Amino acid sequence: MLPLLLAVSDAAAQATDAAPGMIETFGLESKFVIMQAISFLILFAVIYKFGIKPTLSTMEQRNAKIESGLKYAEEMREKLTASQRESAEIVQNAQVKAGDIINEARTTAKDFLEKQTQEATQKANDLLTKAQQAIELERLKTIAQAREEISRLVIATTERVLAKQLSDADRAAYNESATRELNIV
């Protein structure tokens, strides 16, 4: 710093020698100019040390923070993009699985409906067969009762026509005869 001051004072002295009219015109004295230059240099050094240097370091720190923030934002953007792709794939896979589940449910429901229909048809057929068997059994029972009643009526009529009591053997013979004739009809 001192060499700078000496250089400034030498320059001022040479300027004084070169332009005597200017110094006299403005009333400049070299000692005041040198003191002003020294004051300026001291003020410049203080401002640089306590004002400009901390400001520059703060700006560098902020630039570093901004750069790291930008890098972080870029990383987050990449992660977000990857996450969006991944979620889109998950949604697509879920839709495919849901479609498969729906198709499987439809198939299962169709099979269940067919099975229930077959079972209902089978039960209806079984009930119909049982009803037909019951009707046939009832018909046979009714025919047997009718035969017995007809045989009884034949015997009663024969007894009245003959006006005598029939023996058990005669009754059996008449019953067989009536039964044979009923079977033919």
Count all strands and give the number.
Answer: 0
- Tell me roughly what share of residues is in helical segments: over 70%
- Give the terminus-to-terminus CA distance: 154 Å
The low-pLDDT segments are none
Average pLDDT level: 83
Computed Rg? 66 Å
Order of helices and strands: HHHH
The general outline is rod-shaped
- What portion of the residues fall into strands of 2 or more residues? under 5%
GO cellular component, one term: proton-transporting ATP synthase complex
Transmembrane segments: 34-52
Keywords: ATP synthesis, Cell membrane, CF(0), Coiled coil, Hydrogen ion transport, Ion transport, Membrane, Transmembrane, Transmembrane helix, Transport
Membrane topology: Single-pass membrane protein
Structure at a glance:
This protein is an all-alpha fold and 185 residues long. The protein has helices at 2-18, 20-26, 30-162, 168-184.
Structure description:
Residues 73-130 form a coiled coil. This is ATP synthase subunit b. It comes from Cephaloticoccus capnophilus. By secondary structure, the chain is mostly helical. It has one domain (2-122, 124-184). Helix content is 94%, strand content 0%. It has helices spanning 2-18, 20-26, 30-162, 168-184. The longest helix has 133 residues, at 30-162. It is rod-shaped. It starts with a helix and ends with a helix.
